Amino acid sequence: MMPKIARLIYRNFAINVDASTLTVLIAMPALYVIFFGLGYQSMMSGGSSYLSFLAPGIMASQALMAGLFTGGMLWSDRRWGMLAQILVSPFSRLDYLVGLIVTSISIGLIGSAAMLAIALALLQSFNFTLIGVSLMVITLTLGSVFFGSLFLIIAALVKSSVTFNSLQNILVFALDFASTVFYPLSGSIPLPMRILMAANPLTYVADLTRDGFFNEFTASTAYQLIGLAVASLLLLYGAAAVYSKMKIYTQ
Amino acid sequence: MENAIEVNGLSHAYDGKKYALKDVSFYVERGEVMGVLGKNGAGKTTLTKILTTLLRPTSGSAKIMGYDLDHGYEIRKRIGVVQQEPSMDFTTAEGNLDVYGILWGVPKRERQLKKEALIKEFDLDDLLKKRFFDLSGGERRRVQIAREFMHDMDVLFLDEPTIGLDVVMRRSLLDFIRSKAKEGLAVMFTTHNLEEADYLCDRIILIDKGKVLAVDTAQNLKRTYGGMRTVELNVEGGSAPLYGELKALGLNASLNPDGSASVVTDEAETTVREVMKVARERGFQLSWLNVRESTLEEAFLNAVENAGRPSS
Questions:
Q1: Which candidate, A110, A136, B2, B94, has a CA 20 to 30 Å from the CA of B146?
Q2: Smallest CA–CA separation between A13 and chain B, in Å?
Q3: pLDDT digits (tens, 9 = 90+) for B33-67
Q4: A249 in a domain, yes or no?
Q5: Given B73, B86, B132, which is nearest A92 (Cβ)?
Q6: How many domains does chain A have?
Q7: Is B262 within 8 Å of B233 (Cβ atoms)?
Q8: Is a pLDDT exceeding 60 seen at residue B312?
Q9: CB contact, 8 Å: B289 with chain A?
């Protein structure tokens, strides 16, 4: 018999992964990589490649998408009675939470790997090292935990589908574009936006993924990784606390 | 042998003050179907939520298959629950059965056999490929109930399971539950439908304002709370003369349009003896005599109205 967490993860994938989900998770970011990567490249002069800058950024944003997906699963299970049903089955609340977080990490890593494959096909050159790949995997795992926890908190607190969907849309837009996913944090960006970008955890996920992608490791890499790990664990703790007190029914 | 469910002095207060359950005690034997009857807000669903470990009681204790409520995981391994609220995954009806079986860790071969049997039992053939949103309310309910039988269990909690089901499916479900009970399954059957409770349940808990008013068989509840019973009779050649005699004796008799007579009484046995005595003495030939019990509905209404005191 499959271990119980594996059974929950299987269900999360079996129930939630369909054509439309794959479109959101894979096809849309892939189009970003292809159209933005190749399109903006034509505006740039010199040897730097926008595609190689954008690719790890889009990989990082897969952690955000994974979080979004995970929050959606909790919301849907609450809304349609499956959370209560699972919690009267041989699973604890903690099992269910762990199942969601591991699903979030899996989606984040699978989505990032797909983006990496597309980027490599377009770039046709790569120079990966074990440390670089490990840094990317650890970063994307932490990122998926962070955003998974963030959207779990939202899914646990909101009371209506409209609120949940609105919050999701606003947050994804703000987090994606006020980060270093699409452009670097430079002095030419207005100060308020720079502050927003610096406060956005997706900036650190994107920067660390880039460090791993380009094998550029500095002291800042270590500090950012530690910061991301601490923030992810704190938010996971917060999500667990909110979730443990959450009302099971929304109806 | 230990009871399947044992509840002792169970209370639950929402927000620490508003009591949904007060000092509830009862037991359910293995193979027994226990009905739970009560008005809306009586505490039935709170009771189910506590016994299925979704909610902690404020005080009191309960054991399911010998495990107290602190052993939630052990309890959940042994129970099945069909909740009042619809619950389904966003996939096909068949997908729901499959995924639920996998969730419960049912081996593949066993899963397939169970699925085939349930498709037949719940007439799901035409629904298998339909997705959640394409199913009607009654169809969703059928899938939801069938799904619960994808795994084995010792105790089944059914919270108003027949809502949305047509008459044929409802009766078929009740018979299916009865057959499972004969195999040893203990069932707690919460319902508003008193006819169903009367048909299916071995014993019934009457609950109101969080308190248990009575726990007994439907027959005894009708006797205790039903109040008056009706002695119905027919005399060869017409019941009118006997009706007149009974009326003259001061009995609450009436002549029915179909020619039969009836006597409403709270002492059915005495009344029957009196009727037979009068008929014998006056030479009336009784062709039919019947004592009609009160309905469970009458008993329920009286019990609630009199806060559990038996009818005089």
A1: B2
A2: 11
A3: 999 999 888 899 899 999 999 999 999 999 999 99
A4: no
A5: B73
A6: 1
A7: yes
A8: no
A9: no
pLDDT at A11: 95
- Which residues contact residue B194 at a Cβ distance below 8 angstroms, ignoring those fewer than 6 apart? B37, B295, B296, B297, B300
| Separation CA A234–CA A239 (nearest Å) | 9
Judge whether A118 lies within some domain. Answer: yes
Its domain, for residue A226, covers 2-244
Alpha-carbon distance B108 to B101, whole Å? 9
Q: Which residue of A has its CA nearest to B81?
A: A88
Distances (CA, A) of B300 to B105, B191, B214, B295: 42, 13, 10, 9
DSSP labels for A17-50? Answer: -SHHHHIIIIIHHHHIIIIIHHHHHTT--SS--H
- Contact call for A88 and B107, based on CB within 8 A: no
- At B39, the amino acid letter reads K
Does the residue A251 lie in any domain?
Answer: no
Beta strand B203-208 with B186-191: parallel, antiparallel or unpaired?
unpaired
A209 token code pair:
């993924």
For residue A11, the chain B residues in CB contact (below 8 A) are: 89, 99, 102-103
* Token digits of residue A114: 């797909």
Whether chain A has a CB inside 8 Å of the CB on B91: the answer is: yes
Interface test with B, best of A89, A91, A94, A248 (most B CBs within 10 A): A89
**Length of chain B, please?**
312
Residue A250 lies in a domain: no
Q: Do A7 and B102 touch (CB under 8 A)?
A: yes
**Model ipTM?**
0.84
Give residues with Cβ within 8 angstroms of B216, minimum separation 6: B203, B204, B224
Instruction: Match 């039992």 to its residue by tokens.
Output: B121
Query: Is the pLDDT at A22 greater than 70, yes or no?
Result: yes
- What does each C-alpha distance from B86 to A162, A224, B79, B137, B191 come to in angstroms? 21, 46, 18, 9, 15
Q: Choosing among A4, A85, A251, which should be mutated to test the B contact, i.e. which has the most B CBs within 10 A?
A: A85
Banded pLDDT at B150 (limits 50, 70, 90): very high
Which 3 state secondary structure label does DSSP give B105? Answer: coil
B71 and A CB contact within 8 Å: no
SS3 B230: strand
Please give the helix or strand (H or E) that residue B178 lies within, else none. Answer: helix B167-182
Q: How far is CA A97 from CA A92, A153, B77, in A?
A: 9, 11, 19
If you write DSSP's letter for every residue of A45-91 in order, what string do you get?
A: -SS--HHHHHHHHHHHHHHHHHHHHHHHHHHHHHHTTHHHHHHTSS-
Give the long-range contacts of residues B165-169, CB within 8 A, separation 24 or more: B165/B138, B165/B141, B166/B138, B169/B122, B169/B123, B169/B138, B169/B142
Which secondary-structure segment (H or E) carries A156?
helix A130-157
